[in-house]
């Protein structure tokens, strides 16, 4: 078995199309997951029923594999009459929508815990000072706590994002032709598993390392004041 550069070049259009599908799934999931995670993280910091509900949400979606959630959303929920016989069928019959829902739930569970940790790490003196200056809790959150928490959680967010890039390969199970599925398709009609899969792995490696470089630059910018002290 050897690597065939000619086959790799010929299959590149299919692999790049699969890469485009990977990003079409990934980018909405990152945005939606972050928006969903923030209120859950804030609820997790409170006490009472809200905190318990948020803790249960985080524990459940961090504990269930992404692939299981994708199967549940794509194949399980449409079996319910409230989905199958209503306007919801328009959404849940779409593989992209189901991929967004399934991966967003997973991503939001992890991100909620990451954000909670970042907010909890903000010194109480900052909150007390903002109150003394007359800032409202909303102003304190968006002007002080979240910017400070962003510095604390950047590394954890980087790890979660890189994991999500690789988790998108699970969407091939619900008929989407992402990068992994495209490589398997090339394998199916060439009977050469090595070349397309190694090429796909190289593309994933490039994506991950470009993102890692971006996070390194962001980390330097956010913490540039520390380098001068």
Tags for this model:
0% strand, transmembrane transporter activity, 11 helices, mainly alpha, 229 residues, transmembrane helix, MetI-like fold
Walk me through what this model shows.
It is a single chain. The chain is built from eleven helices and no strands. It is an all-alpha fold. It has one domain: Orthogonal Bundle (MetI-like fold), CATH 1.10.3720. InterPro entries: AA_ABC_transptr_permease_3TM, ArtM/GltK/GlnP/TcyL/YhdX-like, MetI-like, MetI-like_sf.
Could you please say which CATH topology applies here?
A: MetI-like fold
Count up the domains. 1
Biggest sheet: strands, sense, closure? none
Stretches where pLDDT is under 50 for at least 5 consecutive residues are none
- The number of strands is 0
Summarize the structure.
By secondary structure, the chain is an all-alpha fold. The protein has helices at 5-44, 49-63, 66-76, 81-84, 88-92, 95-121, 124-132, 137-167, 179-190, 194-222, 224-227.
Q: How are the secondary structure elements laid out?
A:
Elements: H1 5-44, H2 49-63, H3 66-76, H4 81-84, H5 88-92, H6 95-121, H7 124-132, H8 137-167, H9 179-190, H10 194-222, H11 224-227
Helix pairs in contact: 1-2, 1-6, 1-9, 1-10, 2-6, 3-6, 6-8, 7-8, 8-10, 9-10
């Amino acid at each position: 078995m050897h690597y065939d550069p000619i086959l790799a070049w010929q299959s590149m259009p299919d692999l790049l199309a699969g890469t485009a599908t990977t990003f079409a799934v990934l980018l909405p999931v990152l945005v939606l997951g972050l928006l969903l995670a923030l209120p859950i993280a804030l609820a997790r910091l409170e006490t009472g029923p809200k905190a318990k509900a948020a803790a249960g949400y985080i524990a459940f979606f961090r504990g269930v594999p992404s692939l299981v959630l994708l199967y549940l959303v794509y194949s399980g929920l449409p079996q319910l009459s409230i989905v199958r016989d209503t306007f919801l069928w328009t959404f849940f019959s779409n593989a992209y929508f189901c991929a967004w829902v399934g991966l967003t739930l997973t991503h939001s569970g992890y991100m909620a815990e990451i954000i909670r940790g970042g907010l909890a790490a903000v010194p109480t003196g900052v909150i007390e000072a903002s109150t003394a200056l007359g800032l409202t809790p909303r102003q304190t959150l968006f002007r002080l706590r979240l910017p400070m928490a962003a510095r604390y959680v950047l590394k954890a967010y980087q790890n979660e994002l890189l994991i999500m890039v690789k988790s998108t390969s699970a969407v091939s199970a619900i008929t989407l032709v992402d990068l992994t599925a495209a490589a398997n398709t090339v394998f199916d009609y060439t009977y050469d598993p090595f070349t397309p899969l190694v090429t796909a792995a190289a593309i994933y490696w490039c994506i991950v390392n470009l993102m890692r470089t971006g996070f390194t630059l962001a980390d330097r910018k956010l913490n540039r004041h520390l380098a001068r002290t």
